[in-house]
Amino acid sequence: MFLAKVSPANVLAARRLLKLRQFAVAARAFSTSETTTTSALGLEKLGIVNEKATVYRNLSYEDVARHEKEGNEGTFVNNGTFAVDTGKFTGRSPKDKWIVKQAPSQDKIWWGDINQPTTPEVFDELYEKVVEHYNEAEKMYIFDGYCGANPVSRKDVRIITSLAWQHHFVKNMFIRPKTKEEVADFKPQYTIINACKVVDEDYKRHGHNSEVFVAFNIEKEVAIIGGTWYGGEMKKGIFSMMNYWLPNEGIMAMHCSANKGKNGDTALFFGLSGTGKTTLSADPNRALIGDDEHGWDEDGIFNFEGGCYAKTINLSIETEPDIYKAIKPNALLENVVINDGEPDYFDVSKTQNSRVSYPLEHIENHDPASAGGHPENIIFLTCDAYGVLPPVSKLTPGQAMYHFLSGYTAKVAGTERGITEPTATFSACFGAAFLPLHPTVYADLLEKKIEKHNTNVYLVNTGWSGGGNGVGERMSIKNTRECIDRILDGSIRDCEFQTDPKFGLAVPKTLGDIPPSVLNPRDAWADKDAFDTAADKLAGMFKDNFQKYVTPGFTDYSSFGPL
Q1: pTM of the prediction?
Q2: Residue 9 pLDDT exceeds 90
Q3: Disulfide check for 385: which of 305, 316, 412, 441 has CB 3.0–4.6 Å away?
Q4: Which of 85, 96, 144, 292 is catalytic?
Q5: Residues 526-544: what's their mean pLDDT?
Q6: Buried (b) or exposed (e) across 199-230, using 16+ Cβ within 10 A?
Q7: Catalytic, out of 97, 255, 286, 403
């Protein structure tokens, strides 16, 4: 009998295949995937009674990929990542967001363009259409999981979708149960029913703005989505509700990123798009707690989510290595141009808001607990295109609340069609679109947290120096990193400070290797008169914007703004 000679490469391949098979068996043994029925999950309480439908609950990544493929819902790129298009809606539809105006929540909501009121009758009519859709569906997907890494503060959420990729999305974004037994007696505290294929043909009669609807009924603990396939509506829908629930429990809800040092010191980064929040919070020497949504309770900071939802425009391994490496099987690409099986992150023909969602575990340097202690430092990031604000300044508690409520940054020429000069952008609490309550409610709560835990607050300008956009230069990433590093290691507190005469900010005279002429923004300008004019202009915009927050019955922080 002769035995064939087996090469070392073949032996390694066989061993690798065996390991993969063993892993697959183990994965199935511990899989959370369930095939169940509407009655078994008690969906009749929602009006969904459809015993003919197959209900897929908490699918494993392996199973959800199979459903995506069988349903032709998108494509797998060459490295195995699934990619989808969300149709004509490649972002949220803020003008189609509605909250039912009814007691008792109506007395707490900050009504206006962000939180638009609709009636219980209109909601019920739309809800009936959504339920009818699911009562006729052949299948549906249900995710039962959590929002909030701290078990004491977390909320149990249920999200019902008709598409496998939307199930994939919420599996990425929310905190996943580890076993079937964990959710055997699951009782959701809030439910989102995504009926993206349902539209509101009677929107004019309903007093709405289009066929799309994203409607929240706080008292009934349910939200419905119709007419849009964009995944972010589900993520931000629950975030908006967390911003309603938690402050009423004395817990701060925040639109920020968070990381933790090797000694356990926690830092928060607030900032609008383009300020560098994602880049600056990704630090090889610090563990990422989360990149977007967090809470602050009596135990400290905790992530709301189980994943990240990052923009991919102009993404490269050089600019954002952590995000780039996170795009692999189990991640989900949205609205990215694919050429010959490869994502083209520089092609914006579909949208400038191309995205990727992925589980937090895809970030190598993440904190497994997704939580940290009370923050030692809070950093407000702004991209000041007028070149007026200093690269770094220390804020008093009152100033911190003023700039928190202002949420300032600036768009620059060329970033959007029609913008030919710097345009100031203000977004309350660095996330006005997701605030159901009056912004000062969040400011008051944040101020209490800061004072109780002696948290330092800084304003860091990642924008222009030596002149506005077109005249000066963008702050170097080296100088900005120096500011962040000196904040996080505490050495900035040993600096001698001077007071900015227009904004009243405490500005360090020297800091690390940053030239003193850069630290003082007026010194960086060759034309001092032009600087003074620009400073007056920006200060006026701050004052005009802040008037909306000077409201009877709410704390007035206007005295902490520019002179």
Answers
A1: 0.90
A2: no
A3: 412
A4: 292
A5: 97
A6: bbeebeebebeebbbbbbbbebebbbbbbbbb
A7: 255
